[in-house]
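Hello Y.,

Per our agreement to keep a running log of every chain we model this quarter, I'm adding this entry. I've kept the format consistent with earlier entries: sequence first, then predicted structure.
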Amino acid sequence: MAALLTVVLTIVAAVVSLSSQQCAEAKTTIEPCSGSDSCAALLGYTLYADMKVSEVAALFAADPAALLAANALDFAAPGAAHRILPMGLFLRVPARCSCAGGVRKSVAVRYAARPADTLATVADVVFAGLASADQIRDENALASVDPDAPLDAGQKLVVPLPCVCFNSSDNNLPAVYLSYVVQVGDTVPAIAASYETTVTDVMNANAMGSPVAAPGDILAIPLPACASTFPKSASDHGLIVANGTYALTAGNCVQCSCGPDSLNLYCTPTSLSGSCPSMQCPNSNVMLGNVSTHSTSAGCNVSTCSYGGFVNGSITASLTAGLQPRCPVPHQFPALMDPPTTVNHDSTYLPPLSAPGPAEAGGVMPDPESGSPSSSVQGGSFTLPKVSKANGPAGSVSAASLMDKPRQILPLLISCLVFHLQLCITL
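Predicted structure for the entry above:
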C-alpha cells in the first residue's frame, strides 16, 4: 500500500508541475492606489482540512468571533472559537484591504512554514489559491527560491492576499468586495447568480472584456452592504457590513448587522464581553439599539437609541425621536446558524498531499483526555448563503476514507489531473 501511495504522490507532483508550466498565470483584479488608507474586504476561502474556527482566524490574523460574524454563524455560542469546521467549507474571511506598493492588497498575514512546506503548497493548498507562489516569493524577496523546494521549518512569510476597495461602493451604493477564486466548472453567469449580482456588474468590477474566467482567476465580487456614518474620530470609522451578516466593533461590545429587510446598519450590544462602556443614550434611560413606539391619532411617535461609533474608548449613542405615519414593525435580524460539521457538495475535492499536524494551522486539536479529535461539536450540514452548491467552491471527501482506499482513488486522481492539464493547454 505504501508503494502505491508513493506512485500516487509522484503522479500528482508530476502532473501538477507540468500543468503549472502549461497554464497561463491566474488573473487578479488590481486596483491602483496611493496613500495609507484601507477598507473592509472579504476573502473567499475554502478549508483544505478540518480546522478549528480559531485556527482559520489565526491563519488570516483575524478575530474568531469576527470570522463567524462575517458568515452569519453564531459567534456568541459557548465555545464557538473551538468548534471544528469541515474540510471543503467555504468561508468569507474579513480582512483590511491596504494600499501597499501602489496597489490594493492585504499584507497583514504572516505564515510560519511547516516541515515539507514549499512556496507552491503554501500558495495553492494552505491559502487555497488566494496567493501565487511568485507573489509570495516577490513579497519576501526570495528571488532564488524554487517554488517546489522545501522551505525552512519556522520560516516567516508575508502572504499578500488580493482585495479591492473601489470606495466601498458599487454603482454608487455601499458594497463590500469579496475576492473569489474561480473553481473548475465555474462560469461567470453562475458566480454572478450565486451572489445575486449581474454578469455586467462582475465584468465591470474586474475590467473583463468578455464573461469568461479560468480556474484560478480571482474575481472581485461586489456584495450589497450597510455603511456607517461614524465620524473620523471613531476607531470604527468606515465600518461596512455585507448584507445578511454581522460585524463586531467597540471591543466586541457592539454587534452591527445588515438586512435582511433593509440595507440600514443596525447596532445592538453583544454578550461577548463582560466589561463594556456605557451603552445608554445620554439624558435618557434608553439603551443602545432600543426602539420605542407610541401610537397616537396623528401617527406614531418613534424613539431610537442609535450607535454612533467608538471614540476614545467610549461608545457614543444618540437618541432620535419623531412622528411617523405608522409604527415600524420589529426589526428583523439576519439568521444566525450553528457552525457546521459537514459540507454538502456535488463534486470531489482533491485533498492536500500532506495534512497539518495537531496544534498547527489547520490541524485538528486532540481531545486532552482521549487523545482523539473531539466529537462533541454540534451542528449539521451547511451551505453558505449566496454560494451555490453546484457552482460554488468544491466540497470534500474524508481524507481518512481516501487513505483507506488508495486503489479506488488512483483512477480518480489521474483522471482529474489529466482533465486539469487538458484544460490548461486549451487555455
